[in-house]
Write a structure and sequence with these properties.
The protein is α/β, with parallel strands linked by helices and about 160 residues long. The chain has one domain: Holliday junction resolvase RusA (60s Ribosomal Protein L30, Chain: A), CATH 3.30.1330.70. The protein is about 30% helix and about 20% strand. The protein contains 4 helices and 7 strands, in the order αβββαβααβββ.
């Protein structure tokens, strides 16, 4: 079974001599500040396809959103970043699924809304709108032993980075 490779790390290794890292055409200086947030895969209730037609369904979804948002906030706070809030940032997401089923990238990204809100709540970035946070399409990989989501947030206003 073929696992998806992280294009950022592949390019980083290939460009070691130039001392620059590329991510979807955006040059990020190697001294750029980054934070890696590792979370469990989003609950099914966080998917935009989840039907919440009943009162109990709405309460269950709200509870799932609150928990996931708090987990993201705690993960950022545990990183002890002192330079926040960042004015402009780039988010790169890798989903590590437990199986090789076909997934919808748009739904996967939408299910992370609560996580992005938690990142803002923690004070890492000013806001999660497109003016302050640029999101790339996710990378899908397989990790049967440890399914998770890794969100790498890079400060685009770091030293040597004139974004």
């Amino acid at each position: 079974m073929k696992e998806a490779r992280n294009p950022v790390s592949s390019l980083s290794k290939a460009l070691k001599d130039n001392d620059l890292h590329f991510t979807s055409g955006k040059v990020i200086h190697p001294d750029a500040e980054t934070v890696t947030i590792i979370l469990p895969l989003p609950a099914k209730r966080l998917s935009p396809n989840c039907v919440v037609a009943t009162r109990g369904g709405r309460f269950a979804k709200a509870s799932a959103v609150k928990r996931y948002r708090a987990m993201a906030k705690e993960a950022v706070e545990a990183a002890c970043v002192e330079t926040g809030p960042w004015e402009r940032a780039l988010a790169t997401v890798t989903f590590f699924w437990p199986d090789n089923r076909r997934r919808d990238e748009d739904n996967a990204v939408a299910s992370l809304k609560a996580a992005y809100d938690g990142i803002v709540d923690a004070g890492l970035i000013v806001d999660d709108n497109s003016r302050h946070l640029r999101r790339e399409m996710p990378v899908f990989a397989i990790d049967r032993a440890s399914p998770r989501v890794e969100i790498v947030v890079s400060n685009l206003h770091s030293p040597g980075n004139d974004a």
